[in-house]
Amino acid sequence: MGSKIVLASRLVSSFFTVKLLLFAGPIKPSSMNPLIKRRIALGSLFFFIGLCFASWAARIPDIQSKFDLSEGQLGTLLLFLPIGSMMGLPIAGWSVHHYGSRKVILFGSFAYAMSLPLIGMSPSTWILIPVLILFGLLGNIMNIALNTQALDLEDQMGKSILASFHGLWSMAGFAGAGLGAGMIYLGFTPFLHYLIVMGISLVIVLLSHRFIVQEKSSGDAGGLVLKRPDDLLLRIGLIAFLGMMAEGCMFDWSGVYFKKVVMTDPSLVAVGYVAFMGAMASGRFVSDRFIYRFGKVAILRASGILLFSGLSISVIFPTFFTATLGFLMVGFGVASVIPVAYSIAGRSKLYSPGVALALVSTISFFGFLLGPPLIGFIADLFNLKTSFALIAVNGLGIALLATIRTQVFFQSEPK
User: Fold this and answer.
1) pTM, to two decimals
2) Which domains, ranges and CATH numbers included, belong to the chain?
3) Which of 149, 260, 262, 328 has a CA that sits 20 to 30 A from residue 357's CA?
4) Residue bearing the bigger pLDDT, 227 or 69
């Protein structure tokens, strides 16, 4: 009975928390600028997908224990989520182009929220595998649809706002991790935990959906994303590839680096990861102002230099304070890469925003998948410092790609 009371109270408090998130402040919703209401609603949806993903990740150890999986078996199981994500990319480009991002968001939001408890209630790994594929597929469809909607809103508002949406996704990661820790402390099963997150998510979706509008159509090319990108999208895709490779490495290897290279106290091993994630999240909230002042291409150059400098400091001076400083710089460095890449790609003159984003996401996603195992392979051949030094070169690559033949970023007509 006590657990049911806790569950009910948390759901009620979550409802009012989300309502305040959407309609906080002295201004009544009816008197708010429609673009502001749309921005708040869209930001809430970015937060919702980040919360769902972080909630899944927070209970991975419990999933491993439930099915008595070895590390190798767990690694194999986790591969099915990115497989689903890859499958979702061409579907996302096609569906957003043909049906518009609004319809895809409305359908995808409910489907994504309701797919989360399916993970917790899966009775065997054979059932869990297709559920993870579905979860990854729906997540990437939502990613493309939400970014397409955000780009349209950015155009209507006449200023850069995309990075702040990605910042909300990052903040949801902290919220999801904290909520997961609380659920574990209270002894909630993954299924009950995911059910509560689904309830919170559905409240967000129901409060937000009426403010999501049909974006203006743009570009002529549609269909499944099985075509060669033009020069602009290829350049942006490569920049995003390098950024996502570095981001994936930091996600998976920050703690290991602090443990084996920095050799810090076991209680401080997570400091590097927290420094990186905190800098990346906060950097996304402030980067829109810098983009407005200095321009997108200049921000990409600065991001590359920060990424290179941060990892170089961490490799050359692997002490606790210098490595933490370096990881902070890396977090600020990668913060703007994907938002800026998406913003540029979404304005392609050759492809519609949904298809352009799917093309760039396809290229960059390989970087996210390739980076972590590449770190391990190079570390086995040499050492972990060498691995991080090579990833630092990604920063130089980003800066170089944002410097040479910059006219490709400003083309007004397709070639």
Assistant:
1) 0.79
2) 2-211 (1.20.1250.20), 231-410 (1.20.1250.20)
3) 328
4) 69
